[in-house]
Structure to design on (331 residues):
């Protein structure tokens, strides 16, 4: 099935999308007694519990340090650390609320029983690049492998080395608390087939190295589109509305339009305004971003090198502008 991901069969796909959307939404609507058939993005992020496998490869300290930087930029700590209850780094337990129920980031420390201690590097690469568990089952896209799939081989390798360097924590991952039928992991095979195609980021030779680095930071590491791009009924991000914002963001928050549209996006922000936001969370009118973006700033963007920050800002300012007013309209 996974091998079929790349083959475009638009009509058939459309049919399956509709069928799948109905299969997902109809029972959802009933369960939640809501008249609206709505599968927002994080929604389709159903999940289960990871039981793991495989030993480590030697890593130089330098590669481990680089891996730590990837870990920060990709926000791994955010979902895999139970900060609220002062849980240890990457030991799991953080609750991620979705319309389907609560997911919990699993323990990704090298503990052999409860973490990734028995995984091989190949297991890790398969999880990140293909969304496939060591047992062959699929991950729920609440784990943004859909973005991480674009990471380079080198970054995945360094990231793995960094994860191996963390202190192992013997703490079981918490089972996701999601309703039937969403907890059926095999449904994710169909979801992947329809909505996901794997493959590392491809450099666009027509664009500058800075633009390409910015695109990589935004798409493969920062996974900004997982929150800032609206999703279709099946919970997949809509490429034509890339970064155009949504009212159905994580934890029910509105996520602003960050395309360079001057009225509804960030078109009037200077590069300095953007840099301030990414370093400190402060917006041009002196406010501070809240919700999940405060976490993104704390865990990720405030730790970027100046060169990466500059590349990211240059790239964001060159994204196709899209008019979409998220703030004005009430939910
Ligand atoms: C938005 C939240 C989120 C972010 C960010 C995130 N993860 Fe996860 N991750 C999850 C969830 C939820 C699962 C469980 C998915 C499932 O059960 O299908 C998961 C699963 C995993 C797994 C599989 C674990 C297992 O036991 O099978 C690995 C490995 C992993 N994440 C590594 C990472 C790394 C490395 C990063 C940073 C590059 C990262 N994650 C960022 C939410 C997240
Ligand atoms: C986990 C979800 C999430 C991720 C990932 C995320 N954002 Fe955000 N972002 C938000 C939310 C929610 C807000 C609104 C915060 C508020 O209103 O206080 C926001 C606000 C912003 C703003 C301010 C826009 C405005 O008009 O006020 C910018 C710029 C921004 N994000 C850029 C980014 C970039 C670049 C990335 C990737 C590096 C990113 N975001 C990743 C959720 C996210």
């Amino acid at each position: 099935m996974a091998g079929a991901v790349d083959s475009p069969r638009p009509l058939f796909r459309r049919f399956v999308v509709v069928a799948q959307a109905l299969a997902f939404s109809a029972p959802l609507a009933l369960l939640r007694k809501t008249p609206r058939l709505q599968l927002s993005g994080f929604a389709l992020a159903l999940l289960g519990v990871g039981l793991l496998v495989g030993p480590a490869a030697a890593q130089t300290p330098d590669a481990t340090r680089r891996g730590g930087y990837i870990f920060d930029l990709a926000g791994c700590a955010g979902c895999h650390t139970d900060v609220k209850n002062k849980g240890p780094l990457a030991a799991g337990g953080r609750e991620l609320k979705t319309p389907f129920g609560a997911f919990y980031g699993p323990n990704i420390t090298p503990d052999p029983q409860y973490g990734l201690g028995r995984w091989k590097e190949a297991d890790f690469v398969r999880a990140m690049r293909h969304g496939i568990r060591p047992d062959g089952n699929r991950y729920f896209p609440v784990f943004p492998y859909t973005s991480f799939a674009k990471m380079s081989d080198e970054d995945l390798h360094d990231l793995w080395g960094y994860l191996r360097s963390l202190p192992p924590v013997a703490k079981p991952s918490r089972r996701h608390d999601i309703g039937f039928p969403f907890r059926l992991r095999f449904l994710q095979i169909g979801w992947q087939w329809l909505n996901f195609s794997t493959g590392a980021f491809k450099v666009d030779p027509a664009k500058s190295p800075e633009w390409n680095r910015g695109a990589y930071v935004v798409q493969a590491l920062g996974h900004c589109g997982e929150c800032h791009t609206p999703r279709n009924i099946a919970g997949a991000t809509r490429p034509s509305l890339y970064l155009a914002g949504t009212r159905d963001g994580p934890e029910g928050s509105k996520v602003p339009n960050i395309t360079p549209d001057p009225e509804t996006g960030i078109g009037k922000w200077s590069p300095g305004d953007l840099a301030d936001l990414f370093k400190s969370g402060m917006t041009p009118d002196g406010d501070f971003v809240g919700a999940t973006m405060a976490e993104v700033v704390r865990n990720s963007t405030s730790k970027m090198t100046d060169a990466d920050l500059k590349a990211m800002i240059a790239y964001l300012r060159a994204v196709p502008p899209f008019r979409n007013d998220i703030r004005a309209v009430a939910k």
